[in-house]
Amino acid sequence: MTPLTDEQQREACLILAVGCDRETAAKYVGCRVEDLDRQADSDADFQQRLRRAEASPELAHMRNIQQAGREEKNWRASVWWLERLAPERFARRDFGAVTRAELKRFIEALAEHIACEVQDEEDRSRLLERLRELIVGVNEEDDEIEPGREPPARGAADASEDSSTPINPIEQYEE
Fold first, then answer.
1. Other C-beta atoms within 10 Å of 144: how many?
2. pTM of the full structure
3. CA distances (Å), 139 to each of 81, 134, 150, 162, 171, in order?
4. Where are the domains of the chain?
5. 61-70, pLDDT tens digit by residue?
């Protein structure tokens, strides 16, 4: 890979700063996402500029929402954008709905209790295996898109608990 030019780096950051993702930025500057990532890994300054550029649209939309009380201007567009950028954090949820992060924390706690409380090794292993099967089922369901529903947009600032990361919080308890 040839290092990105200063112009390519600047343009990539500008594309990210308006809310596009790394894939769009890479296409625009004529490289691959992996090239952007490699350049960022080898250039701490570029990495910091990328992170700031990716975060700036979220901050702008958050400012719009904060100003909604004073002006009825553009706040709905900002909410729409945030819901699609990071649905785990911003999308409207039905009462009682559980996020991936909450589900993961619950399964971790359950696995810890099973590991500590179930003395018989065979029973403990069997219960942890059943729990692992449930986790596999949840991860497989995530791979399917519900009919009539688009998958959430993949934004640059997605949290680490995004829906593309499989859940498996019981690995540490499996023998």
1. 8
2. 0.48
3. 26, 9, 18, 12, 15
4. 6-85, 100-144+153-173
5. 888 777 775 6
